[in-house]
């Protein structure tokens, strides 16, 4: 999943307005259209007439957002690099 797709998933899950509404050049870009279609094809979002954004997260999309929220933060771990002796 791309950073843009993650951003869009969070938006469609939490915000009831069109994605990038205040950035029309971004919202209407080929990249956003393609990523939106990819999210829909993956079953993570679906068209919605109840949402001002026109899209909403599906049950699968909601499960994905929950998984993102439950990811632990990375930790630093010391390791000895491989070397040839």
Describe this structure in words.
The protein has 4 helices and 2 strands, in the order αααββα. It is mostly helical and 85 residues long. It has one domain (3-69): Orthogonal Bundle (Arc Repressor Mutant, subunit A). It has a two-stranded antiparallel sheet with strand order 1-2. Helix 1 (3-14) packs across helix 3 (30-41). The N and C termini lie far apart (40 Å). 12% of the residues are buried.
- Which second-level CATH architecture applies? Orthogonal Bundle
Characterize the biggest β-sheet.
2 strands, antiparallel
What structural class do the secondary elements suggest? Answer: mainly alpha
CATH class, please?
Mainly Alpha
- How far is the first residue's CA from the last residue's CA? 40 Å
Overall mean pLDDT score? 92
Instruction: Give the proportion of residues in helices.
Output: 40-55%
* SSE pattern: HHHEEH
Strand content: 5-15%
Summarize the structure.
The protein has four helices and two strands. By secondary structure, the chain is mostly helical.
């Amino acid at each position: 999943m791309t950073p843009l797709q993650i951003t869009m998933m969070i938006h469609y899950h939490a915000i009831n307005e069109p994605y990038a509404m205040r950035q029309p050049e971004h919202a209407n870009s080929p990249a956003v259209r393609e990523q939106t279609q990819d999210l829909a094809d993956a079953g993570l979002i679906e068209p919605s007439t109840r949402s001002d954004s026109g899209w909403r997260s599906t049950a699968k999309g909601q499960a994905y957002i929950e998984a993102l929220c439950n990811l632990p933060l990375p930790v630093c771990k010391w390791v000895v690099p491989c070397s040839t002796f």
